[in-house]
Amino acid sequence: MSPQTGPGRAFVFGDNVDTDALAPGVYMKGPIDALAGHCLESLDPGFAASVRLGDIVVGGENFGMGSSREQAAMVLRQLGVAAVIARSFAGLFFRNCLNLGLAPLECPDAGRILAGDLLTVDPVAGRITNRTRSQTYACEPIPAHLLEMVSDGGLIPHLAKKLKTQKRTS
Amino acid sequence: MGHTLAEKIIARAARRDSVRPGEIVTAKVDLSMVHDSSGPRRHKPMLEQLGAKPWDPSRIVVVTDHYVPAFDAESAAILDLTRKWVREEGVDNFYDMEGICHVILPERGHLRPGIFAVGGDSHSPTAGAWGCFMFGIGATEMCGVLVTGEIWLKVPSTHLVRWTGRLGQGLAAKDVMLALCRNLGLGTVKYGVVEYTGSAIAALPMAERMVLTNMAAELGAQTGIIAPDRVTVEALAAVGVSAPDASSWQSDADASYAKVWEFDASVLQPQVAAPHTPENSAPVGDYPDVRIDQCYIGACTGAKLEDLRMAADILRGRKVARHTRLLVAPASQRITAAAAADGTLAVLTEAGAILMPSGCGACAGYGAGVLAEGEVCLSSTARNFKGRMGHPGSKVYLGSAYTVAASAVTGRVTDPRPLLAEKAAA
Ligand code: SF4
Question: Structural domain tally of chain A?
Answer without folding.
Answer: 1
